[in-house]
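Annotators were shown the component list below and the corresponding predicted structure, then asked to write short factual statements about the assembly.
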Amino acid sequence: MRTTFIKTLEKVAARDDSIFLLTADLGFKLFDRFRDAYSERFINVGVAEANMIGIAAGLALSGKNVYCYSIAPFLTMRCLEQIRIDLCYQNLNVKLLGIGGGLVYGLEGTTHHAVEDLAIMRSLPNMTVVAPGDKREAEALANESVRYQGPIYIRLSKEGGIQVHKTTPGLKIGKGFIVKEGAGLTIITAGNLLFTSKSVSDILESKNVKTTLISMHTIKPLDIKLLERCLKTSKAIFTIEEHSIVGGLGSAVAEVLLELGYKGIFRRFGLPDRYGPYIGKTEYLRKKYRLTPKAIANSILRVLNYK
Amino acid sequence: MAQLYKEEINEYREIAKQIRREILSMAYKSKSPHIGSSLSIVEILVALYFKCLSISPDAPQDEGRDRFILSKGHGCPALYATLAYRGVFSKEILSGFAVNGGTLEQHPSRDIKRGIEVSTGSLGHGLSIGVGMALAAKYNRANYRVIALLSDGEMNEGSVWEAAMFAAHHKLDNLIAIVDYNELQALGRTNEVVNLEPLAGKWHSFGWGVQEIDGHSFKEIINIFQKIPFRQQKPSVIIAHTIKGKGVSFMEGKLLWHYRHPDDEEYKRALEELSR
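Structure shown to annotators:
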């Protein structure tokens, strides 16, 4: 996902010399081509996230379109106040590329897991929050982000991840994408559990439960119009995310649904509000937190009173 | 020529006096804090805006302008008054300082039409932003300079040193930091809170050209500016020794005036002192 994003950025940077790329000493080999092609516009600021955000602000105040890269929790939390004041308060053209959204850094441990990032970024005025679900979405959103005015937090997972989209979808920031349309039941996901969510939908379909699957790649601003539509056609709505159940996609959707007068079933699937006791790779952790397709599908069926 | 120079300095002194009166009036009317921090930087700001900076009051957005960042945002009454006296915006705007529905906050909010380059108020942000601006100038092959005015208490912020290290590494000789070294920070004397000394030595070891001056001497400020960069291909820092509350005898060197606003009697006395 991140490789696709950076490759897309390389292409755009060829015709747009306002694009700068900053990293806080992370992304081994990832930026080699960008650095070689646009050495003056690539800066490794060193292990100094706060300084990176300030520098990005200074560049943006000078008309540059700046991307900042680091591991998601370092990028969003170490320098939160720089993000708040320098980027959001001043509403500058700086895009934050947070790598390792969710549990992607599995064995690296809790310091490297990003499970509060969406909630924190979502609370900042002027900040747009996106999380592509596979590399095709990453490509689409990379292109979108270049033209977008104002700060964006872009939550990426590391490598691999199974592709859901066969071709690059025509994503628009702020508009949810309907991956498949069913009836009566809606699953809304954001970010790296897109494939998991698709699998949940497939399992349910095998039990004759039809679902609509939405990739809500933009968590803020949330696509309220699309939620209005879901609410009219769904008796049950579920959110799936690799993020704390506090403040992420599930919270955002719940806030809107309640205000819109939704009276159906609603459940959030995400990580519990605690720092986990588990050590393991991403897939292992997902099992422990019951974020596998089977576990989620079973929960949904239980909620719906299916045997 | 020397004669003209003397007249010029007398003129700046007169402006500084007016600006100090304006700062007192703003603080008095709005019951605002940070008088001491504003009074300590008046000569620096007057020298910059009336002499050293390349700016045009009629075109505050001009691409080629020098960029000034008040990293110690709490000293903004001095900046606002200086910008008004320099003609960047009208003096009437100052009457909207720190009042409900007003024009200017107690910490600066970016407003380039009024010559305010960056929103500041939380310490430790300005130098990094200045670094970004200086990098952009280098990339654009532009000649403008970037000047960030920092407080001494601000030197406690780690981000200042992140920026300092980076700026020297990238040879940003178009970047200038000025430290308002009035030796008083929010809860006490700088050498009692967290000793900064040797401050010049620290900056020097970070790869900067360092000069120390009397921050209330126009002659010293203006002269030192002509010597920038102090080291070839290095950023420059001016450590300006100042007096917190400078110009009002009973405020000078008093921590209390980081917080207090003058009552009627104090306001009168202060204005009298500044009329002499």
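Statements collected:
1. Chain A has twelve helices and twelve strands.
2. Chain A touches chain B through 26 residues (CB under 8 Å).
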